[in-house]
Amino acid sequence: MENPFLDDGPDSGNRLADVTGIALILRQAAREGRSVSYSEMLLNLGFRFTRPKMRALCKTLDAVDREAMARGEPPLAPLVVREGDRLPGQGWWVSRHDYQGPWEGSEARVYLAEHQRKAFDYWRER
Prior knowledge:
By secondary structure, this protein is mainly alpha-helical. Helix content is 51%, strand content 3%.
């Protein structure tokens, strides 16, 4: 069933570039101790999932993390994952400088869980 309220057009309101708004959504997810799929994140912003919109979201996630780290907060991008395997996409793994392992499987899950736990613990207290 098509949802007429979801946007397939251009991001005329710059919702995909809204660092503050996206950070707020992710902080709430962290408080709840849960990850968010790319599709769920786009739905929260009023969009259907498309690869171009997902790529735009990923650019903003980088900015969200830069601002968080500048404030001494843990990154939030590790909370955004693929629906199928609950792991981040390639862009997140490529930016890792402290991990050289596989991007899938148990080793990747352990590494991701450490990063997610930091966000969960930090934001649960706030």
